[in-house]
Structure formats: C-alpha cells, structure tokens
Amino acid sequence: MPAAEISVVAVPVDAKTFIWFQAKGKEAEQPMIAALRIYAESQKQATQYSKNPDRLLIGTTELP
C-alpha cells in the first residue's frame, strides 16, 4: 500500500492485547493493520448482508 494511502492514528488498546502484538517482534504494526482491515471488511460484509440477506458474500472485497 503506498504511503499516501496510510493514515497514522492513535488507538487505545488494552495492555494484554498490545503485549500479544508486541510479541510478534519488530513487525508488530503489520498484524495490527491486518487485524483492523479484517475487522473493517467483516463489518462491511455484515452491513451488505443485512441489506440483502439472500446474498451470501464469500471472499474479500476492496474497502472504499
């Protein structure tokens, strides 16, 4: 992802979760970014499903 598309934010994270991510090593940011992306995608799909429950979404779609 190009740097121009990344926003830097401060997000409160409970200590146990942060320690778990830190245990991943120097690249701890990447799993955090992936977790947020997965969560956002699941919420997007849940919203789309609730608008059209006859359509099951499988796979991934691009986030706006």
Provide keyphrases for this structure.
2 helices; single chain; mainly alpha; 64 residues
Description:
With 64 residues, this protein is mainly alpha-helical. Helix content is 48%, strand content 0%. The radius of gyration is 15 Å and the shape is elongated. The two termini are 14 Å apart. The model has no long low-confidence stretch (mean pLDDT 78).
How would you sum up this structure in a few lines?
With 64 residues, the protein is an all-alpha fold.
Q: Could you outline the blueprint of secondary structure elements for this entry?
A:
Blueprint: H1 15-22, H2 29-51
Q: What is the arithmetic mean of pLDDT?
A: 78
Q: Could you tell me how far the N terminus lies from the C terminus, measured between alpha carbons in angstroms?
A: 14 Å
Characterize the largest beta sheet: strand count, sense, and whether it forms a barrel.
Answer: none
Quantity of strands, as a count: 0
* Class of secondary structure makeup: mainly alpha
Give helix and strand order, one letter per element, not per position. HH
* Overall geometry: elongated
